[in-house]
Amino acid sequence: MAVDRAVLAGSGLPSSNRGVSEFRNEAGTLTVGIDWFSASVDLFAALREVDFTDGETQEEMRQWIDASADNARTAALQVFCWFFAGLGLELDVAASGGRFYLWRVKIINAAKEFVGMIELGGEECRRADGTYTARIELTGTGCKTVGAARCGHAKRWLELRAKLESCAGRITRVDVCADDLIGDYPLRLAQKWYADGEFNNRGQRPKAQLVDDYDSGDGKTLYIGGKKSEKQLRVYEKGREQGDKNSPWVRYEAQFRKSDRKEIPLDVLRDPASYLLGAYPVLNFLHCVATRIDITKAAVEATWKSARRHLRRQYGATLAFISRNCPDAESLKAVIETCTSPKLPRWATGDTAALWPEIAGVNQPQRGIA
Q: So what's the pLDDT on residue 148?
């Protein structure tokens, strides 16, 4: 969500490189969004989503991908189309050697700028359970491009969340940024909070470092937490960094990394403001953003579409067999219930049933009779 032009004009803030401002307060002076994203996904689940596999075993497919850069690029294109099609991004024309995997293919925007990558292939791409993975990444500019596509944060990022869930996705890094555009929460306030122990965790004070511009106007940066730790908060004078020496714009940017001890929940894509606030309760000014997020309907819509698609693709033939061999609705229900679990998925709510068109359709007459 872009900052209002009137706000920018009145505050002297530069209009470029604002990151992904998805949620904002009514005045438009406080915004929260996602500024970096990377995840590992089940490669073959993603390829099945686009019907790319044709009876090959996972090992055969992996060996085919490893065999040449052209093969790797072809497979990466399928992954790219599944996760990012329609968002104004493109896949580079060639694959090169990867950092974490055998191959990597750059993601570029309309201006041909590097905004992310897809990595796949090699012997090191397996999880402990044997799942072959690919890695997807979006830089801050890539996230901004996603943020500008279509309409509404929930629509864009919740679609990505649902697709990650369908492919056993695990977020490996996500940066969440809160922009105070008028300087209500300046860097010196964050310094005071640190001195007062507001960033302490279970009695332990994280490391901190101040990069001082000595009032040159280039902008100060305060780091709280280690660069390689599970989380690090950076507070910096963003407007001054961008070249406006008098800008009040301050950014609070948290970098979260997956570790062997802690996973990053996919819900950070649904509600980055609340996730940032949960990690750093002292940032309670974010309540004015988090409490205004109304994304339940979009979240449910993205989830039921994914669930229905997978049900049809993976078990549609089995359900057709069961349906054709049950003489009436009651016997069909009885057979289906023998295949169910007593637990419901975490996304299942009353809203889900109301928005799932087939379920709503069979329930509506009953409500009318009642």
A: 66
252 with 362, same domain: the answer is: no
111 lies in some domain: yes
Domain of 330 in residue numbering reads as 297-369
What percent of the chain is predicted at pLDDT more than 90? 54
Are residues 123 and 65 in contact, defined by beta-carbon separation less than 8 angstroms?
no
Please name the residue that has the structure tokens 């069961």: 322
Q: What is the pLDDT of residues 287-333, one digit of tens each?
A: 877 665 444 455 566 566 667 777 888 888 999 999 999 999 999 99
Specify whether 272 is located in the same domain as 302.
no
Query: Is residue 77's pLDDT more than 60?
Result: yes
Output 312-319 pairs: Cβ under 8 A, ≥24 positions apart. 313/48
Please state, in angstroms and rounded to a whole number, the distance separating the CA atoms of residues 158 and 81. 16
Q: Rounded distance, CA 215 to CA 130, Å?
A: 54
Q: Is the CB of residue 47 less than 8 Å from the CB of residue 85?
A: no
Residue 6 has pLDDT above 90, yes or no: no
Task: Give the predicted TM-score (pTM) of the model.
Answer: 0.77
* pLDDT average, residue stretch 141-155: 70
320 and 289, same structural domain? no
Q: Is residue 277 within 8 Å of residue 213, measured between CB atoms?
A: no
The residue with tokens 């709503």 is: 360
Which amino acid appears at position 278 of this protein? G
Residue 19: what pLDDT? 38
